[in-house]
Amino acid sequence: MSKWRERASIVRRDVEVSWLQWSLIAWLLIAAWFIWQRWPYIYWLALGDTDDNMRLMQVRGLLSGQGWYDLTQYRLNPPEGFNIHWSRLVDLPIAGLILFFRLFTSDFWAQRLAVGIAPLIPLSIVIGSIAFTVRRLIAPLAYPLAIVMIAFGCTVAMLMFMPERIDHHGWQLAFLCLTVAGLADDHRFRAGAIIGLSSAASLTIGLEMLPYCAMAGAIVALRWIWDRDQVVQLKVYALTLAGGTALGFAGFTSYANMAMRCDALTPVYLTVMTVAGALLFLLGLWNPASRIVRLAASVAAGAALGAGFALVFPQCLGRPEGVSPELARLWLNNVREAKPIYQHPLRTAIPIAVMPLIGLVGTIVACWLDWRRHRSVRWIPVGLFSIFACAMLLWQVRAGPAAQLLAVPGATALVWIVLPWLRKRRSMALRVVGTAAACIAIGGLFTGVLLRWFPIDPPSKRVQTVNRANARCTSLPRLQQLNRIPAQIVFTHVDLGPRLITTTHFDAIAGPYHRNGDAILDVHHAFMGTPQQFRAIAKRHHATLLLTCPNMSETTVYRSRAPGGFYDQLAHGKTFDFLTPVELPKGSPFKAWKIN
């Protein structure tokens, strides 16, 4: 018995000390499982989202010699091209993997493998960061439980790291988790550097996490207001935020982002982050002894920053996209992920909301117990982030993945609190069953079972029809059948444009990217207007082929908003003298016409 206890003690110490090694092993196992599970998606290059397709096109352009700072997509709206406002930072790992796999296989297989593996890289940062956080806040042995929570409880967040999901959201979530790890770190210099650099990297990629970056800065300032000894963290954070943002701007900002735009890291936000860093650093140099003075000075600095932003960049006080009212009405306001969670069906809202709510409860309980037992405020920064993430769901449902990951420390703490109580029960059955039930329930794992066996708000037959059309018209085999038709400019739906240029030799007119509002409106006007209007718009864009996908989501908008319009007439089988039907392979989900 003593030998077994000694071995158990050795294993326990190894798991505690070698936490990073074991976290990476867990990541490798999860990654291997995802690659095996999603191999058909990798094989068929099933880039399911328009942004994933556009990311691959951006990488292809880079590897084909397109300029580092030129992110224009020339196969949309040729010859002018489409303004893509992203950065090259996320392109680097994908391009590196393609170049590596080219040494052993064909270019097409290199691309397949690269887009299958690349999304899993930021997942390693997520697992390592959350493992670090729970070790600091809960216990050295709590991180395996947190990894289980990530793998099984964060169902929506994990979709951001699946093979083929090469959009930038996975990297932004990784840097967000790294920011939380910095907030939980007791080493003040290191914590300030981690928070500042991860925020700068996230802003370099895009502004989706700007509210979280601002929240992180506010928490750093509040910690300094509460505890004057946190001045080292404040100053390091200020310098790394300003310096990291400047380096990100210099190294990755495209030519198009040199303008005073509000939707990316442009001179607008470079100025804001540099001034914010300078103000915080000056506050740290001053470091007044009075807590009231520190609070007043921080409020004054924040007010000055806000007033300066409003006066110097008034164009950024509204929607950052800067789109016209017509484009917002016809397109942007209808983007599902930009709607609050309460405007989504229950089958969508419940899997997203369960984990954040559980994590919120756990965080509040952990904060209260930590203060009651130790008079400590270590949990407060994570608690503020968790509350903020839940509130963000009421603004846009796209905040769901971040809210789930930020809930993991709180949910882990709740299990860590419940398990000791269960271990003290005399009944073996209660201990075993109760422990399993607590882990499943608190981890949010029951939502998948609940929705599988008891469907909530099931989709209607019409929605199922639309979903089938969306899947068939974006499948690689169906799209590559179109390559039998000579290459030309194709007039098709906005949401089909990026997938079409990724998988075929055709060029298209538009994609769902707000800086190109005129082209997006042209497509909507053409499909919802008169046949003569369609013909004029198609001619202006030099389009010689019309391609439609009946019942695709976008087509329902054309028909519902413009009954009797060009697309509605086309869907009802009406013919036009300027359109000649093009024969497609049997079973093709598309319809095509030559534009005369």
TrEMBL record:
Alphabetical keyword list: Membrane, Transmembrane, Transmembrane helix
Transmembrane parts of this sequence: 20-36, 113-135, 141-161, 209-226, 238-256, 268-286, 293-313, 349-369, 376-397, 403-422, 429-454
Tree of life domain: Bacteria
Protein name: AcrB/AcrD/AcrF family protein
Originating species: Stakelama pacifica
